[in-house]
Automatic annotation (TrEMBL):
Signal peptide: none annotated. Keywords: DNA-binding, Transcription, Transcription regulation. SUPFAM superfamilies: Homeodomain-like, Regulatory protein AraC. It comes from Paenibacillus favisporus. This is AraC-like DNA-binding protein. Residues 173-271 form the HTH araC/xylS-type domain. The keyword GTP-binding does not apply. Pfam families: AraC_binding, HTH_18. The lineage of its organism: Bacteria, Bacillati, Bacillota, Bacilli, Bacillales. It comes from the Bacteria.
């Protein structure tokens, strides 16, 4: 399974929470050394000078640079003798199951926005959403935070080759690859657990902790993805599509398809490919 495909699986199950945010100039006593936060931080430097240390890497961030300071990594920061930093910033968690996103994928620790107005607009949107008094305010904050994470990842990762997994357990990656190639067959938890060399009950917990979804849910999701593709690219009857994806019970397939998409298989085919000739 490619790095990008695995990362997309993570993104589908990502949950973000913002704990604090702001836009301000730091004080002359802005300084903390060798601490390890239990949240991630974004700093978008707008002006001024200062110093950061993230893990073993030291930086003197420049205006336009957007830094990621990940959860669980020892870090330091300090004001220096020059003009004080003015920055947009936020503290947040980004989790798949109970794992931190940036433990699962490894990106560069900063991107150069080249003073891109879109980066500033996204931080402003986050701050404005937090100030909203409406009942949907928390949803607006979460939506704005997801867009910030998406912008950072898209600009930090130029290609699949530059996207690295940080702590991906090899056995689970093998299980995902096996499901991708064998979802048409009758896959059992026992079989999958054996491939991961884990007890079935423990395997289920580890899988969900890693990917934010159970093995059975992932198999069903993969089957339905293939069903959607076959519905809009072929004229195959639903019974044959069911055989191809490993769900021979057509009434069950129709039910879970509608639960997942809001469409019956026939309606989905007619809606998303009007050029297909659909059998009644």
């Amino acid at each position: 399974m490619g790095n990008q495909s695995l990362a997309r699986l993570y993104m589908e199950n990502l949950d973000v929470r913002v704990t604090s945010m702001g836009y301000n100039q730091v004080w002359t006593d802005w300084r903390e050394l060798d601490y390890t936060p239990d949240f991630n931080k974004f700093y978008l430097i707008c002006d001024g000078e200062g110093w950061l240390k993230i893990g073993d890497s030291e930086f003197s961030p420049k205006p336009g640079q957007w830094f990621l300071m990940p959860h669980g990594v020892k870090q330091s920061y300090s004001y220096t003798s020059g003009p004080r930093y003015t920055k947009y910033w936020c503290h947040f968690t980004a989790r798949i199951g109970d794992r931190n996103l940036f433990d699962l994928i490894q990106t560069p620790l900063y991107v150069d926005t080249k003073n891109d107005s879109e980066a500033i607009r996204l931080f402003r949107e986050l701050l404005d959403s937090d100030a909203a008094a409406s009942i949907s305010g928390p949803l607006l904050v979460k939506s704005a935070m997801l867009r910030l994470v998406a912008y950072y990842i898209e600009h930090a990762v130029s290609s699949e080759d530059s996207l690295h997994r940080s702590t991906e357990p090899e056995p689970l990656e093998q299980v995902i690859s096996y499901i991708q190639s064998s979802y048409r067959h009758n896959l059992t938890i026992t079989d999958l657990a054996e491939k991961a060399h884990l007890h079935p009950n423990y395997f289920i917990r580890v899988f969900k902790r890693q990917f934010g979804i159970s093995p059975i849910q992932y198999i069903k999701k993969r089957r339905l993805e293939e069903a959607k593709l076959l519905l809009v690219t072929t004229n195959l009857p639903l019974s044959e599509i069911g055989d191809r994806i490993g769900i021979s019970d057509i009434s069950y397939l129709s039910r879970i398809f509608k639960e997942s998409t809001g469409f019956s298989p026939t309606a989905y085919r007619m809606t998303f490919n009007s050029h297909q000739t659909v059998s009644p």
